[in-house]
Description:
The structure holds two protein chains of two kinds.
Chain A: H1 8-13, E1 37-43, H2 47-50, H3 55-64, E2 69-75, H4 79-88, E3 106-110, H5 117-127, E4 142-146, E5 162-164, H6 172-184, H7 189-196, E6 202-203, E7 208-212, E8 218-223, E9 231-232, E10 260-263, E11 265-266, H8 276-280, E12 285-286, H9 289-303, E13 307-311, H10 321-335, E14 338-340, H11 348-357, E15 365-370, H12 374-379, H13 386-398, E16 403-410, H14 417-437, E17 448-455, H15 472-488, E18 495-499, H16 502-512, H17 518-527, H18 541-551, H19 555-559, E19 574-575, H20 580-591, H21 615-618
Parallel strand pairs in A: 1-2, 1-3, 3-4, 4-5, 9-19, 10-13, 13-14, 15-16, 16-17, 17-18
Antiparallel strand pairs in A: 5-6, 7-8, 11-12
Helix pairs in contact in A: 5-17, 6-7, 9-10, 13-14, 14-15, 17-18
Chain B: E1 2-9, H1 18-32, E2 35-36, E3 48-50, E4 59-71, H2 75-84, E5 90-97, H3 106-109, E6 112-119, H4 121-130, H5 133-141, E7 147-151, E8 156-160, E9 165-171, E10 174-180, H6 189-199, H7 206-212, E11 215-226, E12 229-232, E13 238-239
Parallel strand pairs in B: 4-11
Antiparallel strand pairs in B: 1-4, 1-5, 2-4, 3-4, 5-13, 6-10, 6-11, 7-8, 9-10, 11-12
Amino acid sequence: MRKLALTHEILMQVEKPARYLGNEINSIHKKPTDGMVRFAMCFPDVYDVGMSHLGLPIIYDMLNRRPDVWCERVYSPWPDLDKIMRDKNIPLFALESQDPIKDFDFLGITLQYEMCYTNILQILDLSDIPFHSKDRKESDPIVIGGGPCTYNPEPIADFFDLFYIGEGEISYDELIDLYKKCKADGKSRNEFLVEAAKIKGIYVPSLYEIIYNSDGTIRERRALFDAPLTVRKVIVTDFASAPYPQKPIIPYMKIVQDRAVLEIMRGCIRGCRFCQAGSVYKPQREKQLKGLLSLAKKILDNTGHEEICLSSLSTSDYSELKPLILGLINECNKRKINISLPSLRIDEFSLDVMKLLLDVRKSSVTFAPEAGSQRLRNVINKGLTEEEILNGASKAFIAGWNKVKLYFMVGQPTEDYDDLAAITELCEKIAMKYYDEIPKEQRHGKIQISASSSFFVPKPFTPFQWAAMLDRDEYLNRAYFIKDNFRKTLNNKSLHYQYNDAETSLMEGVFARGDRKVGTVIETAYKNGAMFDAWTEYFDFDIWKDAFDACGVNMDFYTGRSRSVDEILPWDFIDVGVSKAFLIKEWEKAQMAVPTENCRNKCAGCGAAGFGGGICIEG
Amino acid sequence: MKVRVRFTKTGEMKYIGHLDIMRCFQKAIRRAGFDIAYSQGFNPHQILSFASPLSLGMESEGEYFDAVFNSCLSSEKMIKKFNKQLNDDIRVISFRVLPENAKTNAMASLRACKYRVSLSDEVFKALCEKGKPENLWWDFLSQPEITTERKTKSKLLKADIKPLIIGGKLIDNAIELMLCAGSEKSLKPISVINAFFESLSFPYSGEEAFLKGLISITRLDQFTVDKDSYLSLGEVGEIYE
């Protein structure tokens, strides 16, 4: 039996010890050799969540193909183990080797959502690595951040030695080769970082100085040591032949998404103006049908999963969706495997498919209009009309469904109370459709409509990056207004409405568009006990309010303020390929409620064509 | 065809819970491409049933599940194919085809389990300080009644566990226990050790000693009753040629 970092006594004390063993089937164990680069890849949340994520296995697979690198995993110890590790001074360890993180060459942390920021500090703290890049010693691992939150890394800039901006497939080899060379040449940590800043997609925050105006906005960014003034994201242009893990790790314990994941497409052709993913993953790129079907077979052979899920930002836009799904159904039926299809547009084809895959009585059809009125849907450029929704619903009712889910956002730019009233009206129209079109004897009971709304958070690199976010009271007023309207409807027994709490979204609002001054708030909140903020049972808004007060940082400066397009934004130094001129044009069109065509219909000239790949080139 | 699979669970796998072990086998069966039978209905699942769950932290040399296969290779080949999909700490060691007319599955036919409780040096030393270990164990086991107390929400339940102890012996620093198991009457090895340690006025209960790693417990095998004698679940059925 290999030596475990945790004793029998501790493993018997914690909930779900399987989180900390690292002995899963398909996990990669190597024999450490001299000069082998040890890479700890971290998802700063509990194993159950982190293991459900697709991006990390891609890098795990890619790095471990190199014989001179051993990439291992590390996740946030759950609070029960966290406490034991602190009490007993047990250093955080990587799962496969069970070796302390502190002894690694690299600690890569994937940043999938803003509410994980205090968990970054938990990881550093338990690993005994100084929080600030500037305090780290030669022997400490190089701490790298990656993932969607790096499109504005400034609130957490001090905690990282470097950020990787873009898709993991591109620059890691160069970075590791450089590291090995620097080490062989006896170069220091700082010398390595200065060199690393020259690699495409690598941002070294310590090489920049930010000068602020007296009102708190940015006056200037100064680059030191010849570091580049802008950092352009790196992406895979030949996406169809990009490597993809064929033998993903099979966890023993049940995790949040316990299934095989098939990435069919990256990027999105739609230009929803609130959506950061749609912007930063441009251009849209597809995998080829034939490759996907054989890949699906291989993954199922190698994992034995009983469900497979298609992953993309908008499944319905995949150009060969029909043959793909039919091919998968054919393969999966033989093996008694479920297929899970997220984000399908409701039309005849998708309903036929859903009828094959789902129990019509138990499942529901889902729409994401995001806004209630057509005017506001034009503002946000959500290309979904009321007619399409009602037609889709009607077809679903005829096919036997009677449950409908709808997703909305509250607080988008230009929204007024008429737009909010339209949410209820739309839901009522759907209910009426059911009672008008389905004869009583063919109905399976009452219609059930559940609408939910989230609190809109403006994100960097979207046309709404200049917009103000609502304050807490106004958001709640609007949510209550909708709730009230739902109560007054004719079918109020069948219509349900729920809304997200305001506090978490406000915090997201600060982190999403924050600058370096926010870093001290995160550190203060962490020291006062904030951790696992993405978990409602652990999120404590009071800790955060106190931390903002203690640091003299005003939340409203980040959330409640609309910015002028001339202001230097904290993330302006990143080039995601979508030009600022395009975003400004879209911001102006939004004010006038003028929609923009999707990439497939007509190129809007966003700038992503400069990458030379995907839909921009192939059309 | 109904089959019975015996497997071992050792080392790190003792920290993987019962439900996870079931899922691990379901996936291993899919990876191996076995011709297992599925239930009918909207969400078909493999027809598998495990003899009895093993407590977290215990190792085992004799775990069992029954399954229905549409077809299979020889026992020897099936064992090899299974093990290709598993790791060193979980191994299939027997694969037998049950008689067509077998009425009960492993779970329903279970009557007894055999355990080995290994005492650490620390516990064994403490035991020696109280007297000759064999004598202490004999005295404990030959009491007319062995009462244990169990707290429920509202009251204290007293029970005599002696009738549920089929046999027990202390050899060197290990106690071997044969205990009733199954749906009618069942006894956990920890309950016996709790009572034994209490009779010796040890500062810790059997449970605490187990959680701290002062004793370790291995399930050696599971048994049914056949013609008034105990028969290993693994000896039911025939090796498939």
